[in-house]
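Students often ask why we bother encoding 3D structure as a string. The short answer is that it lets us treat folding as translation between two languages. Here is a chain of 335 residues written in the first language.
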Amino acid sequence: MKKLNKITSIVTLIALSLLFIMGCDNTPTEVEDYEPEAVLFSFQEALEPTADVYLQWVNKNIYSQYSETETGISDATVILYPLFDDLHDGAYINEPGNPPYAEMITFSEDPAFPGHYLPDNPDTIRTGWRYRIEASDGESLSLWAETTMPDTFTLALSDQYPDTLIGYEPSDTLEIEEYADVFPTYNRNDPVLRSWWSDAWPDPSYFAEPEVGYLLNIIALTDTVDLVPLDPSWDPDDPDDVIDPEDKGRLGWTFAPDYMATIEIVWIYFDWAGPHRVDVIASSKELYRYMITNLMFGDPSGDKPRYDSNINGGMGVFGGTVKKSFYLNMEALEE
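And here it is in the second language, the structure alphabet:
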């Protein structure tokens, strides 16, 4: 299995999307004629409170520094509401275009961050339910998207790692140096760690085109500035071993199709020493498709030269997840 790819930031996603819009022939005329598109990002996690929403314009000049002050979309009306229980009885709760909506969640803009919208009345996002998000300004901006939350699933680890670590959440007051006493150590001499999970879509027939799967994250919990390479030959005093700040990424990720229910996690997947969280994330069809085309820099069929977005009237993604996690303390060994 190849080394996990570094996740792309939202800013880079927007910039790359613009490149795909304009195609390979990026003439000054095309840039001048391009009308920036609206972008919506919202990732809702089932069994957790309602998450934030981000609204931005594509930065027309991809060579200029990103600024949320200039690209954030302000004064929009943003709402989120359930449509129906998609995995179970399919009973309608709301029907689009027929307000007022039951269990509707509204959002207000963060005064410190243009385009960042916070839920006014957050509620627990439910597994198996289909949700719809809408954003408008009463004039030219009109965005909407729908996604279905995955169902719950189970996660298990190799016998040498206790299942009690699954779902464990460290206290906010737990200091980094204490993690080694809480999490099991893992190094290159240890047996391969295997992880198994159950199906988060017991009946995937509710998707017209079943394209669901899991996202797998490895997240270093150490602050970026304090990251130390796992490579034992790294010498902080050697000028050749100096690490540029932009190369200190804390997150690596890959994906697993819905038919893949296990993975072997080896030490080489980790870049840094110290505490890590490993996530197995069941994702909605929309988010899974978006992330795959993100990884492949566009639709592999060539029919869509941009990321596969489910945002009607704009770009971005509205997706749903169910997450299971466990923790490891990566140990650097002398050669």
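Translate back mentally: The CA atoms of residues 213 and 258 lie 4 Å apart. Keep this in mind for the problem set.
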